[in-house]
Amino acid sequence: MKNKKLIGFLAVLVVFIIVSFIKDNHVQKKRITENEIPTIGVLQFVSHPALDDIYKGLVDELEKQGFKDGKTAKIVFQNGQADQSKLTSMSQHLLNEKSDVLVGIATPAAQALANQTTEVPIVLGAISDPKSAGLVRDNQKPGGNITGVSDQSPVKAQLDLVKEILPGKKKMGILYSSAEDNSAYQVEKITKEAKKIQFEVKSYAVPSTNEIAQMMQVMAKEVDFVYLPTDNTMANAMQTIVDIANTNKLPIIPSVDSMVEQGGLATVGINQYDLGTQTGKMVASILKKESEPKDTPIYIFETGDTIINQKQADFLGINIPKSILEKATIKGVSKK
């Protein structure tokens, strides 16, 4: 009888040990799987259509590359909403999340991330000249933990387009934010190119969106058209700029495709979604251990798409040559 009780006890004990082992093994496997999912921390400076398209392109490309948010990767997204004071704490939050790769969308966000770590890989999305922004030592040989994608627009092609669709217009006004390092670099570059082809260039800097309306009123009396560089402050205030420009029948040539759709006249620009997908490819390559930031040159697009806002052209009474329309992407349709 005693032996039977002992055997029964031992049988129960064995079953208990086996069940515990299976349960612990399952928990351990689950923990390992969770730990193996890479974390991608994304810091975006502000929401506007151009930067939002970059983020969408980034997420879509990561999924194509096998890093689907919530399943095979964890994407932690932070948006500073143009408040510089939040960027530092958001960068620290992304590091606390144990991000395997960080992504900075727009220069202020990228600079905030770079100030927090020299070890975690950082991929730049939409920075015109990472070297002049102090993010890399050299655009071809970054040398540190940062690489990424430039949003440098094809300036010469843009100015050639202006000559074709606005013949006789020589006075070019560049409106930009004096608070963005990225913009000052572009203004210098655009001014040099514009002067080569005999444009009269005058730049108009504003410290914040609060001064844009007043500055546009000044520009309306002094220039033939407004050029907008890749500038977050301008993108964020695009509706204000368009309203005042339309009141004064002043054409706007933005450098970004999405800003044409918002009321610009035309551009030769980089598709912002494509910019995001290229950023995603670089992030995926780093996660797969195929590349390292220090050896990866900054990616620069060599060509852009011609974008025309036909509705805006009709409103301004501008006849776009058929040769341009045939190769362009048309945004906006007039109700005739």
Automatic annotation (TrEMBL):
<dbReference type="InterPro" id="IPR007487">
    <property type="entry name" value="ABC_transpt-TYRBP-like"/>
</dbReference>
<dbReference type="Pfam" id="PF04392">
    <property type="entry name" value="ABC_sub_bind"/>
</dbReference>
<protein>
    <submittedName>
        <fullName>Peptide ABC transporter substrate-binding protein</fullName>
    </submittedName>
</protein>
<dbReference type="InterPro" id="IPR047776">
    <property type="entry name" value="ABC_SBP_TrpX-like"/>
</dbReference>
<dbReference type="InterPro" id="IPR028082">
    <property type="entry name" value="Peripla_BP_I"/>
</dbReference>
